[in-house]
Specification:
Blueprint: H1 3-11, H2 15-27, E1 36-37, H3 48-66, E2 70-71, E3 74-75, H4 83-90, H5 96-112, H6 116-128, H7 140-154, E4 164-169, H8 171-185, E5 194-199, H9 204-207, E6 217-222, E7 244-250, H10 262-274, E8 279-283, H11 296-299, E9 304-309, H12 311-314, E10 322-327, H13 331-337, H14 341-351, H15 363-370, H16 384-398, H17 405-425, E11 439-443, H18 444-451, H19 454-463, H20 466-477, E12 479-480, E13 482-483, E14 493-497, H21 505-524
Parallel strand pairs: 1-12, 5-6, 5-7, 7-8, 8-9
Antiparallel strand pairs: 2-3, 4-10, 9-10, 11-14, 13-14
Helix pairs in contact: 2-20, 3-5, 3-6, 3-16, 4-6, 6-16, 7-16, 8-15, 17-21, 18-19
Length: 527
Amino acid sequence: MNNKEYEKELKQLGTFEIASKMVNSAKKNENYKGYLDAGRGNPNWINTQARLAFARFVEFGVKESELTMLEGNLAGYTTLNGIDDRLNDMLDLNKNADLFIKTLIDYTEEELGINRDTMVKELTDAVIGNNYPEPSRCLMNIEKIINDYLQETLYNDVPLSSSTQVFPTEGGTAAICYIFDSLKKNGLIDEGDRIAINTPIFTPYLQIPKLNKYDLLEVNLESQDDENWETTLKALDVLEDKSIKAFFLVNPSNPASRALDSKFLNRIKEICEKRPDLIIITDDVYGTFVQDFQTVYSVVPYNTILVYSYSKLFGCTGWRIGCIAMNEKNVFDDLIALLPEEKLKSLDEDYGIVTTEPRSLPFIERLTADSRSIGLYHTAGLSTPQQAMTALFSLTHLVCHENDKYIESANRIVSGRYQKLVNELGIKEDNTRENAKYYTLIDIYNLAERLYSKELVTYMRKNFEEISFLMNLAKEKGVVMMEGVGFSAPKGVLRVSQANLPDGAYPEIAKRIKGLLKEYNDKMNGY
């Protein structure tokens, strides 16, 4: 297969599948030892505090279980009365993990009003996984903890924790799938509906609507490099059109890594005042990488479903933990109530197997039921060990009382790598508050013009497909990056992740990009 045929084949694949092909090519490069995969958003750091606390709770849970029954490796169940005292007897406060456990139990009692024995029992049972989640959607006290964490990290002082309900999920990706499925099932989106998408955006938001299962019509609110990858306020005017059923966005954006500013948020609020029926889904996984971040959910909670994943900040992509958050009063419940009687009766039949009052079943509980095909609603919910870890990660931040050195370190890491990359490329740093710096978008054509000439850009456009640069970068330079087109970015834009490689890799990546551009320029000039 020649290059052109291979390029044509690649274009049929998704962005992440293309990146996987590039990794295989980069591994075989003969010019450099090893390869640099700057395509992955998986961070190369982890949070140790929560993991060590989890391990100690497992140890304690086994000891507790042995108190009620013990035959070889078979133990019984834990008991409530005095469990906090027994935990304290085991803890050695000279050890960081044990001190953290003591501190977090103090915090949940003092700040959240949770009984100590009840909190210890819930976390202990959760980590040893001795029962189904009860309630199915989320363990009671863990929901309070997650709500407190979201309040502190994403809402920017807008008090919403007491009116927000949480559904922990298998990461943000599961949350996205559950939301689309339940919106469709409950008649809130249907084939042919128009939805607005803030692009460039995380690829699934582009791919899922196009699937035959949904067949939605996308209206892209595009941002451009010359606008600092920010969607203009004017572009938001389309949301006033009542034919637009929903608006999907990632904030801060992926791949552009930009947070929405106050003007953008205020404009969304104005639109929702005119369009109270507008559905909004905001994916805020990178919110903690922006100082004083504010989610769309805190501006228009009635209209918005919030998706959050712990994966990036805490280095826990393998744990698969995230959540869906919704306000108790929301447009989803109100729109369902307005559905035609025929549709309501059909939904009554489905949800009637789990409740005697199906029309009173909130949308967030429908999400939970739908995640297990309704019939297994009673055993739905994220596994309790995953819920426990979600709570422990949340508490590592909450007990800091706003002086979270871990978050500061994570932000410093991505910021330092960003600086090394753009300085070596000769690109002006963007140090505005809105830049999360988790990713960088590089327009190869703009870079070629700045380093060489407009003629080089014309030569590259005329003689090579955009994906050729990506292929050659992998094959010849051993560097893997993500193609921006898959995120609905303009042709020639590539995404670099500042999360997953050592600090010293980023100036090296820049040097290899410049080296490949020099080869293109030399070839154009016949060298």
